[in-house]
Amino acid sequence: MLVIKRGVRRVLRRMGYDILKVPPPRVVRPAQEPPAVTPIWPLPRDPRGPSDDEVRGEFARHKFWHYAYEFEGGLSFTTRHNNPGLDTDVAGRHLQRFRHFMPYLMAACGGSLKGKRVLDVACNSGFWSIQCALRGAEVVGFDARAELVEQARLLKRVTGAEGAEFRQLDFWQMSPEVLGGFDVVLNLGFLYHVPKPVEALERTKRMAGEHILLDTAVHPAPECAIHLKWEEPSDIRMAVDEGVVALPTKPGVELMLRHLRFGGWFEIPARSRDLPLDYLSGRRASWLIEV
Q1: Facing residues of 143 across strands?
Q2: Which of 52, 177, 202, 269 has the fewest CB atoms within 10 Å distance of its CB?
């Protein structure tokens, strides 16, 4: 049998192909579906915070907003993009995403984020940081764009989410020496904006003590692969610098997780049709990862 296998492999190699054994993933799927968790929405207003007119003025001062926001009392703001994606401007997109993957993170943390130290990678205007801080977590969010850090700090003032801190920092400068250690790291909507996804995941692993929540666009091909494309900073949803970025397939993501020797992981299943189109069409996926 071994001789036959070697013969088949020689023939395939002459044709430009090969046979490789891919080990099975370390699945750590929970024994049962977690209870639903809803976002804190509309966002609360701190009575010591800015007035309605001041909030309107601050939102108007920024030309682009990646997230739509609604606050108690009826104050609301839409997304604003220079180059929107297929469903980027759907007002409830971030709320659908929250209901999709946050229940699994909350369950893994014992049902509460209170007392957890959470890092929000490339935090944008701070939606995820604020949600975690309002649940009792100590949160550090960072982004490379100064205007996004300003937006996040505005959200903190409006909501009174004192547990959130925001810094301007390039991802490749992120380290435990600079930011400290964290129980949970949120890597949401970032991995496909960098040219070196393995290194990005390795750096993310260094920051996390317990769990990583990974949410990323993926290439729909079934193979273990990384699709390269060119990206320019034409919008706040794009990479901060122009250049090549890497879009992994789902099997490619899982192979990278195995390579980096994570304790375990599973892809968060789509439990509802109430999801953004890119999740339903297999162009985006989420994983809960044990460090």
Answers
A1: 168
A2: 177
Say if residues 264 and 242 touch (Cβ distance below 8 Å).
Answer: no
pLDDT per residue as tens digits for the range 214-258: 999 999 999 999 999 999 999 999 999 999 999 999 999 999 999
Domain that holds residue 171: 34-290
Sequence-distant (≥ 6) Cβ neighbours of residue 273 within 8 angstroms: 280
From residue 93, alpha-carbon distances to 58, 96, 148 in Å are 23, 5, 19
The pTM for the full model equals 0.91
d(CA 41, CA 46): 14
- Please name every residue paired with 287 in a beta bridge, in sequence order, or none if there are none: 214, 267
CATH of the domain at 233: 3.40.50.150
> Which amino acid is located at 287 in the chain?
W
Domain tally, the chain: 1
Residue 11: predicted pLDDT: 67
Are 102 and 286 in contact by the 8 Å Cβ rule? The answer is: no
CA angle 110, 120, 280 (to 5 degrees): 80
Burial class (CB in 10 A: 0-12, 13-18, 19+), 173: exposed
Whats the size of the chain, residue-wise?
A: 291
Beta-bridge partners for 249 = 219
CB 267 within 8 A of CB 287: yes
